[in-house]
Amino acid sequence: xxxxxxxxxxxxxxxxxxxxxxxxxxxxxxxxxxxxxxxxxxxxxxxxxxxxxxxxxxxxxxxxxxxxxxxxxxxxxxxxxxxxxxxxxxxxxxxxxxxxxxxxxxxxxxxxxxxxxxxxxxxxxxxxxxxxxxxxxxxxxxxxxxxxxxxxxxxxxxxxxxxxxxxxxxxxxxxxxxxxxxxxxxxxxxxxxxxxxxxxxxxxxxxxxxxxxxxxxxxxxxxxxxxxxxxxxxxxxxxxxxxxxxxxxxxxxxx
Length: 255
Prior knowledge:
By secondary structure, this protein is an all-alpha fold. It is about 65% helix and about 0% strand. The protein is built from nine helices and no strands.
């Protein structure tokens, strides 16, 4: 007959309990595992490959810098050429309407040649083409008709010739107009026309100046304006009237 032994049972359970407690404690207090990288080893081939890559990158940076420098120099050269081309543009070619600069239209009946010629010379001097109507020794006409210098000279001369034609009356234009004429030739023809009749015009203007009276005008302003115009015309034909003569004529013509 088997008999139940409570002492043995109790003893066995008592022996197993410390083990179980230790296992439970070890499970609870176990530290987390951390993965450590493997120890690095030196590889000569990899080092050589890295050095070659760095060398190629440095060469590419130098080449980029050289290209940037070249592009900068090229752009600066182009800008210099553009600025030089702008500065080479002649001011005479920029005049669109000569009547804005010379408002007087030269006519045969009005003795305004001196005033017109003075305004024209001032305009030509300011646009660097005065030598086309008043020849200079240091700026002669180019002799080689096939050269670029002669072509440029003809362009400027034709421009000045147009200025002359556009500021004179139709009667004077038909008188001096000739084919293949230059600016200085047209200028001299106009000077001859007005200077040849200079003495006769001076005599006529003197008589008209001394015969002018207040009775022929509606008011004093018109009378004084006529005397001023006559004195200007006399100056243009080489017989200027000073202020003393002008005042004497003004007072003598009053009623």
